[in-house]
Specification:
Length: 328
């Protein structure tokens, strides 16, 4: 009798897209239409975010062109996924846990095959996104998206914030920009800064300081988000110089304390900026490793919008297609 033999088939892919937000699906649409048959790993709660990316964590999207009536973030992402699949993208609901970019073809493992033979690929598009840092304040879970948000541009215009006092936590450029933006909607905007100075660039500081609707509270930390069980209506704050605590009446709270790009799997293999974002050659999606492309929030610490992510996903799709045809 012959002994059992397990045959392990090495799987090889031409191009592997990691991620499932607007950048990943736009790259997939371009590559699939070019008949490259991309494989897209959409993740299984990778980085704490559902397949479909950050937009699945919000309600109405009003600034994505082509949808004048608006649509929900999940609906927009379902449509993008349908469009990638329609042209032949294979979507796999697994998280890529490890990549080896040291030789070609590249190798990678998913969380379900960490001990098995790696899958190989000629090109990778990294579109793993980023996530806004959260404070994890008591009450945050209850009022998340019911008064608390991490994106003023995305959520600032919703009716619950109109003509109401709002607060922004942070002292960087994002905090200044978001506070300034929110004055279009709120009756007043408090900036809560934990130190006695802002970190933002001079021009952004001046803009915030000059805006009559912004009040900057220095040396102020936040302790608890409070509300009526449905919507936020106050924030417990403390002055760290005097130790005095008080309730600040606000109906909106916006975190602007930075973002964390999802670059753990390529750290040490692809050049990153000090803040962890992937470095790309300006005007392209090319990273420091030929054959590895980056698109979306993972390489953009500034704009971080669905449309800019989709735009850079298109660039990555076209750059990867060109790379693959040169390989052949
Ligand atoms: P992301 O959307 O960040 O998605 C990346 C995906 O990759 C995630 O699903 C993640 O799980 C997956 N992933 C990560 N690592 C792995 C891995 N190792 N393997 C497999 N999968 C992985 N922008 C707008 O333009 N308009 C808005 O109204 C708007 N509203 C927003 C509201 C909120 C609450 C938030 C948080 C953001 C909002 N944004 C909005 C910003 C927008 O969502 C992002 O700019 C955009 O989603 C970034 O897209 P992306 O393709 O880079 O990746
Ligand atoms: P930054 O990291 O520059 O600033 C984060 C801010 O949040 C800091 O003031 C920090 O305080 C504060 N912070 C962090 N954690 C906490 C916490 N737990 N509690 C309270 N406060 C906290 O992030 P940004 O998003 O502002 O900027 C990121 C990059 O993007 C920067 O390079 C910036 O220049 C750029 N950018 C540029 C813009 C423009 O030019 N228009 C607009 C937006 C961003 P502390 O200072 O005490 O550490």
């Amino acid at each position: 009798m012959k002994p059992w033999r397990i045959s392990i088939r090495m799987v090889h892919q031409r191009v592997t897209i990691i991620g499932s937000g607007p950048a990943a699906h736009t790259a997939a649409i371009y590559l699939a239409r070019a008949e490259v048959k991309p494989t897209l790993y959409e993740g299984m709660f990778a980085n704490g975010i559902a397949a479909g990316g950050q937009l699945t964590t919000t309600t109405e999207i009003e600034n994505f062109p082509g949808f004048p009536e608006g649509l929900t973030g999940s609906e927009l992402m379902d449509r993008m996924k349908k469009q990638s699949e329609k042209f032949g993208t294979e979507v796999i609901t697994e998280t890529i846990s490890k990549v080896d970019l040291s030789s070609k073809p590249f190798k990678f493992w998913t969380e379900f095959n960490e001990d098995a033979e790696p899958i190989t690929t000629d090109a990778i598009i990294l579109a793993t996104g980023a996530s806004a840092k959260r404070m994890n304040l008591p009450g945050e879970e209850t009022y998340w998206q019911q008064g608390i948000s991490a994106c003023a541009v995305c959520d600032g215009a919703v009716p619950i914030f109109r003509n109401k006092p709002l607060a922004v936590i942070g002292g960087g450029d994002s905090a200044c920009e978001e506070a300034d933006f929110l004055t279009k909607y709120g009756s007043k905007v408090y900036m809560l800064v934990r130190k006695d100075h802002l970190r933002a660039s001079t021009i952004m500081q001046r803009r915030a300081e000059k805006n009559q609707k912004i009040e900057i509270l220095y040396n102020t930390v936040s302790l608890e988000a409070k509300g009526d069980g449905k919507f936020l209506n106050a924030l417990r704050i403390k002055n760290v110089k005097t130790n005095e605590e008080s309730d600040l009446q606000v109906n909106g709270l916006f975190y602007a304390i930075g973002h964390t790009p999802a670059t753990q799997i390529v750290a040490g293999q692809v050049d990153l900026y000090e803040n962890g974002y992937v470095k790309t050659v300006p005007g392209t999606s090319l990273t420091s490793v030929p054959g590895v492309f980056a698109a979306g929030d993972v390489q953009d610490s500034k704009y971080r919008q669905a449309i800019t992510s989709a735009g850079s996903g298109c660039m990555a799709g076209l750059d990867a297609e060109r790379y693959l045809s040169e390989l052949e």
